[in-house]
Specification:
Helix content is 40%, strand content 38%. By secondary structure, it is an alpha+beta fold. β4 and β5 form a beta hairpin.
Length: 155
């Protein structure tokens, strides 16, 4: 085979592989966004079954939140599940409008990190938080292992 043809084929193959890898990464990022959005929506809509299905049920699962009233955190799935049992029994679904400004999503094999700003508007209040999520891919599906949120307050 001619040397020029071989070089063209190699370059063409590299381009195809690069485009394919980028498309796969973009699909993973969209799947991660979908899990995060679904977790928030199911929490606000008091849908325990969906909410819990989006978490890795492990001792290293972690949730934290900080606002002007204080800071709290929960370590481990069992504690997280117990902490929110009352919320899922007694709360009413929200009609909140939620928007996301995605800052960064990084994928590392079967792990991912996402950072974003979330704005929640409901009939009573407006809440803006800087948030991050850590996810693991289990059985081909992205699931949460860590939630961190800090509320933003303007002066």
């Amino acid at each position: 085979m001619n040397k020029k043809i071989i070089i063209i084929l190699v370059i063409g193959l590299q381009v195809v592989l690069h485009v394919s890898a980028k498309a796969q990464l973009d699909q993973e990022k969209e799947a991660i966004k979908a899990v995060i959005e679904k977790e928030t929506a199911s929490f606000l809509n008091v849908d325990y079954k969906t909410w819990s299905s989006l978490w890795v049920k492990a001792p290293y699962s972690y949730w934290s939140y900080s606002d002007s009233t204080g800071t709290s955190y929960v370590e481990g799935w069992d504690n997280l599940n117990t902490t929110y049992a009352n919320y899922f029994k007694n709360s009413k679904p929200s009609k909140a409008e939620i928007t996301y400004t995605w800052i960064e999503i990084r994928v590392f094999e079967d792990g991912a990190y996402a950072q974003f700003v979330q704005k929640v508007y409901d009939e009573i209040d407006y809440d803006e938080t800087s948030q991050m999520r850590v996810l693991e891919k289990k059985d081909g599906k992205w699931k949460l292992i860590c939630v961190g949120a800090i509320a933003r307050y303007t002066r």
